[in-house]
Every structure is written in C-alpha cells, then in structure tokens.
Amino acid sequence: MSKSDDQQPSNQAFEAANSTNVDDAVGRALNDFRLRAKLTIRALSERAGVSSAMISRIENGQVSPSLSTLQALSNALDLPMINLFQHTINAVDVTHVKAGAGMISRRHSKGNSHDFQILGYHKRQDIRFEPLLITLSKDDISDAQHLYHQNGCQFVYVLEGELYYHYGDSTYHLLTGDSLSFDTAGAHRIGELLSPTVKLLVVFAQRL
Questions:
Q1: I want to staple 200 with a disulfide (CB 3.0 to 4.6 A). Which of 15, 63, 102, 134 is the partner?
Q2: What CATH code would you report for 7-88?
Q3: Tell me: the pLDDT tens digits for 96-114?
Q4: How far apart are CA 7 and CA 123, in angstroms?
Q5: Domain 103-207, CATH 2.60.130.10 — does that match?
C-alpha cells in the first residue's frame, strides 16, 4: 500500500468531521438569527423559498446546504451570508487604543485640510469599520471644499465646538454634545466652523 493510499482514509475522516462541524455551526447561526427575527421556520420558508423541512435539517446540522440556499436564507433574514458562518471563526481582531494614542495623520483635500487620529480599524469580508478623532480649525475649511459621496453610513459626534454640517440640501447646526448620523451615499461635507476649533468623533461603516 502506498503512503498516499495509507493516508487517504484519515484525510477523508478529517474532511467529514470538519464538514460536520461547519454544518453544525451554520445551523446554530441560522437558528439564532431566525429566533432574533421572531420568525417561525414556516415564515422563513415562505420568505426564502426554501422548504421548511430543509430549514429544519440545516438548523439541526443534518445537511450541507448549497450556497444558493444559504444566500436565499440570508436575504430573507436581511443579513450578509457570511454571518451564517459566525460560529466557524476561531480568531477575531481587537484594538485597544489608550487615551492620547492612535495614529495621527493630516488629510489634504480640496478646501479641507485637517488633523485626524485613527482610533481603530477593522475590515472583514463583509464590513469595514473606522472610528476617527478629527480636529478642525477655521483655517482648515473653505467653501470650495470637496463634496463626499461614499457607500456606507457615518456617525458624527461633536466633542467640542460649534459648526454647520451640510447633507444634501439640508444644513445642520451642531453644538457640543450633538450628533448626526446618515447614509453616506448622499452628498455631505463640513460647513462653516462657528468656534475657533472643533473636535469630532466620526465613525464610518461600510458593507463590502
């Protein structure tokens, strides 16, 4: 018997065990998300176009579902398909930034130059997440600055100062403690600063 023949049964056994573990993990995740959505198996079946029997078998780890089936189920639950594999992830990144730390940079764009501090950065297959601490002065901003359009959502919290923030056809007067959140597909930019300096906590999230 060759070496490769001798190894084949153990390799097949490993692959079978690994497949079973993935099936169990996907089933557990599907059950978690279905219950969070307060859906019965029948209700999810009607939404996804997947039989109730198949959903039950998936949740019990009794079948390896096709990608098209998983896509239909994730669409019905309104979540990225990768979320159904959350229990298969063995490692995640954690960023701890001490007070006053974080990478400091200066951004230059049309009509807008400002200092910012990167407080963290995470990128997975399905999402990008970036919190920034931005410091502005009146000399940094002009009316000729660039309008931003992005694919994602943004949260702006005023730590210190007063300013106008433009989004679409609206202008928002923001004071210390105020916040603004919006879909970044709409045109947006920082407007006039009404105090000598402004400090903002900006969190940007984007589905990839």
A1: 134
A2: 1.10.260.40
A3: 778 877 777 776 666 566 6
A4: 38
A5: no
